[in-house]
Amino acid sequence: MIELQEVTKRFREHVAVDQFNLVVPEGSIFGFIGPNGSGKTTTLRMILRIIEPDSGAIRVFGQPHNISANNSIGYLPEERGLYRKMTVLRQLSYFGRLKGMNGRAAKAAALEWLERLDLLDWKDKKLETLSKGMSQKIQFIATVLARPRLLILDEPFSGLDPVNLETIRQSLLELQKDGTTLLFSTHDMHMAEQLCDHICMIYKGNKVLDGSLNDIQNQYGQDSLRLRFRDGTDPEGRLDGVSNIRNLGRFLEMRFQGEPSQILKQAAGIGELDHFEITHPSLHDIFVRIAQPEPEDAVNGGNEDA
Amino acid sequence: MEETKMRKILAVSTSEYRQVVLTKSFLLSLLFPLLIYGGMFVAAAIFGDKTDLRDRELVVVDYTGTLMAGLQEANVKRNRSDAVERQGKQVGPKFVLQSYGDDELPDTNALLAELSDRVRAGDIFAFAIIGKDYLSPEGGDDDYLHYFSDSPTFNRLPDWLSRSVRDLVEEKRFTEAGYDQREINLLTSHNRLERFSLAELDADGNLIEPEEENRLAAFLIPFGLVMLIFISIQMSTPVLLNSVIEEKMQRIAEVLLSSVTPFQLLLGKLFAGVAVGLTFSFVYILSLSLSLRYFEKVNWVPPGTFVWFFVFLLLGLLTFGSLFAGVSSACQDLKDSQNFAGTIVLILIVPMMLSIVTIEAPDGAFATTISLIPPFSVMTMMNRIAIPPGPPDWQVYLALVLNLAFTASVIWASSRLFRIGILAQGKTPTWRELFRWIFQRG
User: Fold this and answer.
1) Given CB 3.0 to 4.6 Å as the disulfide criterion, which of A1, A118, A153, B404 pairs with A26?
2) Residue A100 to residue B8, Cβ atoms within 8 A
3) Quick one: CA dihedral B323, B329, B334, B339, positive or negative?
C-alpha cells in the first residue's frame, strides 16, 4: 500500500527524517508512533506529497507517488482545521469536491455520514456553533467522505470524550473491514495496542521499531511484572531487582531483573497479593525506554538503595 | 487528469466566490449603483413631467427706489419665455413680484422679522432686499443685494434676480455716465466659448458633426474608471488575504493541501478573487452604461473604453490578487498580513493619485511613460484610453504585453511564496526573506 525507501528530509541543518524505510501492508491498521519532533508528521506529509523528500522514493498504491493518488487518501491532521463560519453541509461538500467527487455525490455522502454519527440536525449550522466533540466528528467525516482506500490519521482520538471516541473507533474498524488501510500516528499507546496489527516507531528521524505488537514485545522479552496488593500497598523501594514502577490504576507495572520467584516471595511478605503476572513490557513502556533511555546502572538503582 | 485538476481549482474558486458574494456587505455594495442609477430612472419616469409649477411670490424691498419697475418688466418677459411656457404648456413656475411698499420703510430688523414670518406662513416664497447704495459705482455701506428664503435648493428665482438686477444696474450706470446702453450692448455682446471634439469624415467623405465637450464628464469618466479598478481590486482582498490567513491560523491549509497542490489552491483563490472584482465592476459598468444610454450621453465614453477597462482590470486583479495571496500565506496573523497588504496598496494608490496629472495631460511624456510601466499602467493607461482621442494603438498594445509579462511573473513569484508560506509556522518573514523564498530551490 505504502512503501518508503531510504527517504530523507532535511530542514536546513536539521535532519527530520533520515534514510527512512517503511512498508504499510494493504488492509492493515498501522500504528506510527514516536515522541514529539521525531519526524512523524514530516513522514505523513511526505506520503501525502504536501512536502517532497530530499532523497529516496515513495510509492503509494504500488505506483510512484503523485498528487492524484491523494484522491484515494483521507487525511486527518493532528491540528484540526475547519471553516468556522461555514455551515456543516457546505463544508463537507467542499472537502468532498476537493477529493474529486462531484457536488451531488459529496452532498449525499455527507448527509449519510451525518446521519450515521447523529449530526444530521446540525447540517445547516455554522461550525462555530458546534461543540468541540461535534467539530471533531465533522472533521472525521470530512476525512472519510470520499471513501478513501488509505486513511492517514494523526492523533485521531485526541480531545474526544469516551462516547465519541468509541463512535469514531467503531467507524474506523468498519472502514478497515471494508478494505480501507489505516495508518495512524498517536501518542496513545493503549489505543495503539488495542487497534494496531502493525506498529512502527520513529525516533529522531530513524526507525527504531517495526513489526507486529507481539514481535516488538518479544524483542524485549518478558522483563516486566504486573502486580496488585489487595490493600493498595506501595512496594516502592521494598522489592529487590525491580525498577520503573508505574501505577497503571488496576495494577502496578515494573521492570525486573533476576528471579521472578524471589520477587514474588518478597511481595508476598509486604502484603496480600491479588495479582502477580510476568509479562512482556507494554507498548507504553517500550516507548518510554526508547524515547527516554536511562543509564544502564539506573535499572536497579532505586531498589539497591533500599 | 487535467479535468480533475480543473475541477478542484473550480471547487476552490466557487466556494471562495460564494463566501464573498453572498455576504450582506458585498450585496449592499452591488445594490448601491443600482439604487442610485435605478432610482434616477424611476424618478425621471415618474416625476419627469411633475415639475412644481406653483407661482413663486417674491417681495422686493428696494431701498434704491429705482429698480422695481425694471424688475417687474423683466419678470413679465420671463413669464412669457420658454422657461415658463412651451407650446402652450407651462413647463416652469412663474414668478410674482411684489414691492414691499412705496411708503416709508420700517427699520431693517423689523422688516426681516416680518417678512421672514410671511415666508414661514407660506404667504410668500421669498424676499429680497436691495441696499440703497447698490447703484453707486463707488459702492458704500449699503451696496448689497440680499435674498431670503427657506428653500435653499430652489435656485431659479435667486439666479434670475441676480441676473436681472445686474442688467438693470449696468444699464443705469451706463446711462448716468452718458453712454448709450444699447450701443454698448451691441459692442460688447458675444457668445460664450463652446468646446467641441475634432471633426471627422465618415466613409462617404461626409463631415461628422463634432460633439460638444463636457468638461465634467471628461474628468469624471477616466477618474471614475480608475477608482473602480482600485475599489474592485480592494473588493477581491477578502478572498486572497483574509481567507488565506484564516486557513493558516485555523490549520485548514494542511487539510486542503492533502487534496490539492499549493498552486491549484492559489489558482482557485485567484480565480475567485478575479470573479469577485469582475462581478463588482460589471454591475457598476452596466449601471453606468445604461444611465449614459438613457440620458443620451453615450458619447461621453470613447468607443472601446469599457472593453479595455475589463482587460486592464483583469490584469490588475491577477497581479495584485496573487501578490496579496502570496504575501499573506507567509504571515502568521491578520495584523501581519494587513501590514504587508498596506505596502501593496500603496502601489495601487500611486497611479490613482497621478490621475489628476495624467488626466490634465494624457499625451504628455510623464503620462505616456507611467502608462507603459506595470503595474501602474493598469490604471494610467485606462486613464488615457478614457480621454479622447486616446493614446496611439501601439502604446495600448505595448502596455498590454508588458502587463501580461509582469502579471505572469508575479503569479509565478507568488506561487513560490505560497508553496512555502502556507505551511510555514513561526515568525512572519521580512520582505527580504520573502524575496529569498521566491528564488529558494527545492
Assistant:
1) A1
2) yes
3) negative
